Amino acid sequence: MKEPGTGGAVRLQRWIAQREVHWQRLDELLHQVEKRGFRSLSAKELRELASLYRSTSGDLARARAHRAGRLLQHDLQQLTVRAYTAIYQGSRRQEWNAIVDFCLWGFPATVREAGGYIAAATVIFAIMGVVGGWYGWQDPGFLELMLPEWLIAMVRDRGELWTGPILGWEAVSSSNLAINNISVSLGAVGGGITAGLWTIYILMLNGLLIGTVGALVGRYELAYPFWAFVFPHGALELPAIFLAGGAGLAIARSLVWPGALRRADALKQSGTLAARLLFGIVPLLLIAGAIEGFISPSESIPNAVKYALGGVNFVLFAIYCQRIRPSVTAPDAPAATPVETPAAAVVPNGAPTASPPLS
Prior knowledge:
This protein is mostly helical and about 350 residues long. It folds into two domains: about 10-100; about 115-320, no CATH class. It contains eleven helices and no strands. It has helices at about 5-35, 45-65, 70-115, 115-140, 140-145, 150-160, 170-190, 195-220, 225-255, 265-295, 305-320. α4 crosses α9, α7 (about 170-190) packs antiparallel against α10 (about 265-295) and α9 (about 225-255) runs parallel beside α11 (about 305-320). The longest helix is centred in the N-terminal third of the chain and has 44 residues, at about 70-115. Keywords: Membrane, Transmembrane, Transmembrane helix. InterPro entries: SpoIIM-like (IPR002798).
């Protein structure tokens, strides 16, 4: 006569014997990943890893449901945790790799792709800068129309600039400047949905103001120290505004003249381009804000050094925008693809709701 439960124990042992080879294989793949990373796996092994992770998660649930030994449950739990950690940490590493790749190659490529729009934004800004400088130089009344009286009085009557250092407040000043510049850039990008009218207005206004201020400081022989203040951060800040204006004009063109594409498709395409530009504009403005808060107004840095720094910043940024991703010879084997783990996969401390019976 058989003891009660003997049949269940036999089925459990048979199931363990069938599944053990898969657990061992998962352990081998995890050892390889933990030692040499996901790049050491082929595309086939990556798919195998994902499949084994899902099946082992299900095995853990079955072991718990059928009250398998504590040691087996513990081993399966540890194996599942290791697989979960390897896969999801690997995904995070891939995200960081994608960010680095965008910074190194993606953003320069996007700038070149939007080159026509950026050039148009630059021309609009430059024309209005010339207009502001011309009228400001010819007509003092134009200066009073465009600029606040206190600023004109400071330059005209006291022979001083308003750009001196704010001792003890550099960090706050830098943050405020960066936030203001980012707001202007967001307005220029978002202005594309007004058929570009708001984008063009922002470019024209900023160009007109910089030209008018340039005329003011030129009339009263303060141009050299003023532009020494502007150059270090302006070498990055102004290109960022041109990039934002270009993004807005790209959106405007898709809205007004989508060409052969449907308007929705054209807007989707230009919106993606604008978003990629914006991802690069924000850190650019943060750097410019830090320079404007700490370096540009510093009286301890000679003006000649500030001019040199501005020139270096502009040249380095121009070189950066010309970066082209080096061509890579395609390998014989297909490139490894990221492991996709379905949402239904078990989390280390949980278990799937379904627990199929042992076979």
